[in-house]
Amino acid sequence: MTAYLDSSVTLRYILAGEITIRHVLEYPRVVSSELMEIECRRVIHRARMQRELSDEGVVEALRRLAGVLQGINLIELSRDVKVRAAESFPVVVRTLDALHLATALLWARDPAGEGGNMENVHVFSHDSALNSCAQALGLSVRLG
Asked: What is the value of pTM for the model shown?
């Protein structure tokens, strides 16, 4: 079993300390797109610039992010991922969500990943459109 971690879950943890991420990190394998790290760092920097995070808050958010990154495998935004993200999806999704979904799909179909078993990849996201699309694509969704 593999957990696919979306940025929304990571951001709720690093910014607010929400513990939902513990369910994800209990999986034997946790993966995400390298996009997740970029999104999280951008949000931290934006929050700092908009004075939504104090200096201590920034340090804590970066510490939490580093801890999450140590426990997961980041998947490269390969050409195949970008090509799939540019294609049609059964549900309207934003560009970054399409990149996450394409990454999860290609991971699930990779014999070195999950051997083509879509049900063995569990998507963790707080984004309803991403979750709806993941389900329509045959991926298992663990958050609503």
From this structure: 0.91
Give 29-50 pLDDT, tens digit per residue.
999 999 999 999 999 999 999 9
Q: Which residues, at least 6 apart from 4, have a Cβ–Cβ distance to it below 8 Å?
A: 31, 32, 100, 103, 104, 107, 121, 122, 123, 124, 139
Number of domains forming the structure of the chain: 1
CATH number at 80 reads 3.40.50.1010
Decide: helix, strand or coil at residue 91: coil
Q: What is the DSSP letter of 88?
A: -
C-alpha gyration radius of the chain: 15
Collapsing DSSP to helix, strand or coil, 126 comes out as coil
